[in-house]
Amino acid sequence: MIGRRDDGYHELITIFQTVDLADRLTLEVAGAKIDLEVHGGSAPSGEKNLAYRAAQRFLENWPLAAGVRIDLEKTLPIGGGIGGGSSNAATVLMGLRRLTGIPVAVEELEPLARELGADVPYFLYGGTALGRGRGDRIEPLDDLQERQVWLVTPSLEISTPDIFQLHGAQVMAGAEAPAAARWRQAIDWSAIADGRNDLQETVLSRFPVMRDVYNKLVEAGASVVRLSGTGATLFAIFLKGEEPKELAATLPADSRVVRTRTLTRSSLDKRFVVQ
Ligand code: C5P
C-alpha cells in the first residue's frame, strides 16, 4: 500500500495471479439488444451485472448491427475477493473482441475496463502481473511456475471500501518505484512468500473467523498464507513437503474450500474457444 489518493482510492503495488477456477461465459452476436442470462449463484442480472455493463461499453465504442447474448454460469463466490465480477467483465470485452474480429488492441480496451472497476484491467491480461495505481495499471510479468493452491473463503461479507477506510494509509512518498522494481526483477514463489498484504491485519483483526482460518493454514505447514485483496478469500501454497490430507476437515464447516492450481497466461489463453 503506497497511500491514499485525492479521489479516495488507494495507491497500490500488487501482484495478480490467475487460478484454475472460473465461471463459464458464452457469448453470441445475436438478437437486437444485450441479453444476459445468469445461472448458479446469486449474481445480479441486467445492468447491475458487470458482464452486462462490459458488453454495453463495448457496443458504445464499437457498434454492431446485432445485439449480444451472454450466458453466465457462476462458480466463483460473489464478493469472495477473487475477482469474480471483474474477470467476467474483462472476459466479455476480450470475448467480443475475438468474436467480432474488430481490430481492437488490448490497450484500447483498458480505459473501458478501468471504468468498470479497478481490478478489471488485470483480467484483460491474466497470468502473473504487476498492478500499480489503483491496481488498474497492469504490467504483465514472467509467469510464476504453476502450483497447487488452496482457496479458503469463510462465509462472511467483507466490504472493500470499509477495509481500505479502516486501514487508512499515509502517502509513502517515493515508495512506488523501488517496490515495483523489486517485483519486476525477481518473481518466484519464494519472493511471494516474503511479500505481504498490508490490508491483511485489518481484516484478520475485524473478523475472528478469518484469523482462525489463517492460523489453521499456517499450522498445516503452508509456506504462503495470504489474504487475497480485501478478502474474504485466503490462499495457501505448500512449497515444501506434502499437503496435509485432512486440511479441509480442520477448517470452519461453512467455509468454501477449493484446491486448484495457478495458471500461466498461455494456459489461460487456451480456455478461450471460438465455435
Ligand atoms: O473500483 P472498484 O469498484 O473495484 O473499487 C471498490 C472500492 O474499493 C472503491 O470505491 C474504493 O473505496 C476501494 N478501493 C480503494 N483503492 C483501490 C481499489 C479499491 O480504495 N486501489
Cα-to-Cα separation, first versus last residue: 43 Å
User: Strand count, sense and closure of the main sheet?
Assistant: 4 strands, antiparallel
Order of helices and strands: EEEEEHEHHHEEEHHHHHEEHEH
Shape: globular
SS field, number of helical segments: 11
Structural class: alpha+beta
**Largest sheet: spatial strand order:** 10-11-9-12
Q: Output the radius of gyration.
A: 19 Å
* Hetero groups: cytidine-5'-monophosphate
Strand content of the residues, in percent? 15-25%
As residue ranges, the low-confidence spans are none
Q: Mean of the pLDDT scores?
A: 94
Q: How much helix, percentage-wise, in residues?
A: 25-40%
- DSSP summary, beta strand count: 12
3D architecture notes:
Strand 10 (224-227) and strand 11 (234-237) form a beta hairpin. This protein has helices at residues 50-61, 84-100, 106-116, 122-125, 160-167, 176-185, 189-194, 200-206, 208-219, 247-250, 265-269, and strands at 3-4, 10-11, 14-17, 24-29, 34-39, 68-73, 128-132, 137-140, 148-153, 224-227, 234-237, 256-261. The chain has a 4-stranded antiparallel beta sheet with strand order 10-11-9-12. Helix 1 runs parallel beside helix 2 (84-100) and helix 8 crosses helix 9 (208-219). The termini are far apart. It is built from 11 helices and 12 strands. 35% of the residues lie in helices and 20% in strands. It has 275 residues and is α+β, with helices and mostly antiparallel strands. The mean pLDDT is 94. The radius of gyration is 19 Å and the shape is globular. The site of cytidine-5'-monophosphate (C5P) has 12 residues, from helix 5.
